[in-house]
Amino acid sequence: MSGVVNFSAGPAMLPPAVLAQVQAELLDWRGTGMSVMEMSHRDRAFMSIAQDCEQRIREVLSVPPGYLVLFMQGGASAQFGVVPQNLLGDRRSADFVVTGAWGSKAAAEFSYFGQAHVAASGAAGHYTSIPDRADWDLRADAAYVHITTNETVHGVQFQTLPDVGEVPLVADMSSDIASYPLDVSRFGLIYAGAQKNIGPAGLTLVIVREDLIRPVLPGTLTVNRYATVAANDSMLNTPPCFAWYVCGLVFRWLQETGGLAARAQINRRKAALLYDYLDAQDFYQNPVVQSCRSLMNVPFTLARPELDQAFLDGAATAGLVGLKGHRLVGGMRASLYNAMPESGVRALLDYMKEFARSRA
Ligand SMILES: *Cc1c(COP(=O)(O)O)cnc(C)c1O
Predict the structure, then answer these.
(1) CA distances for 15 relative to 174, 243, 246, 294, 337, angstroms
(2) Is the pTM of this model over 0.90?
């Protein structure tokens, strides 16, 4: 392993064991004499890689029968529009529960296709909590209810899934998919860009209950039609082959390291280390209500923001990188995805304590 600990929010660090395997197989994938990057996606070798990845995703996430697993492109951002193109049918509106910057963006993009009804929203600009379920203004005739399970920028995460009744739940899980056990049957659709928790950038995962797919809206490109993508094994056109392959290795790593229950335990422990310290002193602050704090992205600010650059410079010298906060929030952000080891969090804590001591 190299000498840095990478806290980047995305693209983010990958498990070192996965990178080592990629390296070992880079020039010659299992006797084929070529790299996965050089294979035709129609080749038997790549088809086996693709199927293996899907199988592992289905196992690790316990995807129930009746759900399609699709490998798409364009990131979560493209799904902001592709979801309504496939799920709206003849309805015009969906409900959005906005708990951070990404949910806000999803609602805004939806407006190209219909009327986004904001059923509940945190205080725009500084989202620090999830509105009480009792106060959500959900409508029975909405095509679906959209949530962002983990708000990557604001560090706000659902700790339990909301009950939204009969209306299908659609979730952007880009930054917390595969970080805890999940009951997929409670969702109508889950989408996620790969580059936070499950692989390199370029791949977008969509898990959708097949019977919710409606005739697409006029103007929907063929590559964005879920039913057509599924019928063509997500290979209508050239897929992001290499990212797909690495994603398969990440899910294998998840299987080999105890699955999502074990992962959730580790993730809780890592985040607790940081939050416990943040709450125990006043040199640094995290603004998020305790019951809504993200285990994946921990934003924090310095009580004296004039020290921000010195903090970042010192961190970089100590080999702690990717800590600069999102421009919307300022300050710092430590992303603690699945691949972040506990030792990385401890190294950050040691540095934070020392920095606070030296500037007191
Ligand atoms: C990163 C992120 C996005 C944007 O993902 P892209 O793949 O870059 O389009 C959307 N939603 C959430 C929750 C994210 O973390």
Answers:
(1) 17, 14, 11, 20, 10
(2) yes
